[in-house]
Amino acid sequence: MLFAQSVQKDFQIVWNAINTLDISENEQIPVFSFNDAVFNGPYGLVPYFRVDIVIEKDVKDINVSIRNQQFKLVSKSNQGILHPVFKNILDEIQIKTTFKSVGSEKIARIEFIPIKRNSILNAFSLLTSFSLDIDLLKSNEKEVSSEFSFAEESVMADGDWYKFKVDKSGVFKISGADLQNAGISLTDIDPAKISVYGFGGMLNEKNSDFRYSDIPELAISLELGGDGKFDATDYLLFYAQGTDSWKYNSTKNVFEHQLNIYDRNAFYYVHIGNQNGKRISDISQPEEEADFQIDEFVDYSFIEDETYNLIGSGRRWLGDKFEFIDSNTYSFDFENLVPTSTAFIKVELVARSYSTSSFDLLYNEQRLGNVNISKIPTGSYPAYAYDNTFEKYFQLTIDPELKIGLNYNRPLSSSVAWLDYIEINVKRQLIFGDNQLAFRSPESVADNAITKFTIANINTSTMLWDISNLTDVASLQLNINNTTADFKVVTDKLREFIAFDSNMAYSAEFVEKIANQNLHAISNIDMLIVCPQQFISQAEDLADFHRQDGLKVQVTPLYQIYNEYSSASHDITAIRDYVRSVYMSASESNSLKYLLLFGDASFDYMKREAINTNMVPTYESFESFDPIISIAVDDYFGFLDNDEGDMYYDDVDIGIGRLPVVSTEEARRAVEKIKHYSSSDTAVYGDWRNVICFIADDEDNNLHIRQADDLAKMVDTI
């Protein structure tokens, strides 16, 4: 490691001859390597240069530049035999910097792939020597944002909490009768003390991306009937985000969906406490003339069924199967489409075939295009299937229907294909109908812009909310003229709105009353044990055993983690956020050291399989077709530094273990074994502790037997 604040350092890279990785007795994969290389990435074949620098804790940013670069060229003949993963090498060196915590020290890590593609010569250039200029910037040298921290206390520690679930995004209604059915007496309720908390969608995986410090409170509207009391016929209204989410891609000028892979319901809490609840406020409209006049908007929809996981690994599940059928048609229900406007389609398709296959795509029986899907290669451990993406902007016709057809051009009788998803963006006219109308307009966004939106078919009971900020929904007054209404708003950023009548509000379904809890207050713990409720007794038994050795152990049931960190959705990132909140709140002398996951895991988060062992979930890779690189890994829960979290090969900051038990009897036996092997019984300290047995099968031309033999020889010489 380099110990410095500002560093200029010269480096040499000594490349080895192109090595080979044995796949079978007759098959090898060539790879690059050099002295002290770090192998990252899904295949573990790409060599990275890495250097760590110990820095002061007040360093907030790092600038790194590379100069004096010297390369050597890899001949075309050598390049031709490289593994396909090297096809993604770029034309220039790209440096990545991250901050790490190692014990009490703060580390700046610099890493990059010291290879670049030489496009002119159609070859690779290997970096052999270079200089790094490293500038460490302290907080007084540039303005930096405050670092994220979790709340020290959870709002769920006090008051009464009632969980409701929703199955879509939109305005929801909870009536006094609904609260009575949840076991709440309306007699003594002060309506001002009613509040709603929660959020939808999936948690961001990267630690530095946005997340709530605690379950957020939402602004709501109360309809009390004029008497100031909350009666059975009165109700509250709130906007809820559902399980899935959409994000605007400004480069493509389209909205892209994210399917929630962990849960098909989002959950919200009605809270009755001692503080006044948050209420929806009115937005004042600008008096200036509008820069834009908008009477159309962008709408979107997707079809993505989760039915088939091809290899029993990974997080990708596929929908319709083209095995005994060659074509299918999918209808999208958009009202008031703008004729001849531009639409966008994205389709992800998968095929398993020993010959290249393809799909023809159609819009209302008119051909949109074709997409090819590569054939499965020969050799050991090929990918089970391959995928490809079709994207296209196309023009709508005057036909009010929108149907997408898929025709599979099956090359072999054994070929089979699947639909992953279809995603659509269209333009619709701003016409209010029989359902809630959510709308947005990227065309209205500009610096200091004011936009006038005009909505047709409005009535006097129609309400309009600005739902751009999910926790601070606000109301807008409509200027109604007969059946048309308009409003003005500042659109210096993308805004989203929803128009509705109160009788259009969806119903939220009561789930259960939640006991008070306060996981955010937990700190200075040596070991966390996370388990399902059914293993609490066995987990506490094990915790008591470790407490005898002086460890501070906290046993936490999964449902409490979900309640407090993911608004009750079964999102695995909630587990990591909980671990991280304990890790971040600890003093340097009492840092979190261990995490035990008490229960088995499964690739099936949603319990679609008949036999499911998803007691405590694990991280499943996005790769779900290649058996070599599709993995399940618990390391994810130990990626606790700010720049980590969205890769499964980051640095693990704590020790992580798992007891893969599926029943209380297995859990009891596992705990008893741990106690036994930790005892001073003479049988525990027998000669067997010095005997190592290597076991391997004879598949793949005895590859694994040869590997076991190599390991045995290595251990024997230690």
Tell me about this structure.
- It is a single chain.
- This protein is mainly β.
- It has six domains: 2-138, Immunoglobulin-like; 155-281 and 506-513, no CATH class; 282-298 and 430-504, Immunoglobulin-like (Sandwich), CATH 2.60.40; 300-427, Jelly Rolls (Sandwich), CATH 2.60.120; 522-677, Rossmann fold, CATH 3.40.50.10390; 687-716, no CATH class.
- Helices cover 11% and strands 38% of the residues.
- It has seven helices and 46 strands.
- The radius of gyration is 29 Å and the shape is globular.
- The model is unreliable at 141-145 (pLDDT under 50).
Defining key terms:
Immunoglobulin-like; 7 helices; 718 residues; 5-stranded mixed sheet
Structural class computed from helices and strand pairing: mainly beta
Number of helices: 7
Beta-strand residue fraction: 35-45%
Instruction: State the distance separating the first and last CA atoms.
Output: 27 Å
Computed Rg = 29 Å
Number of domains: 6
CATH architecture of the largest domain: 3-Layer(aba) Sandwich
Examine the coordinates and then state which fold CATH places here, giving the name of the CATH topology of the largest domain.
Rossmann fold
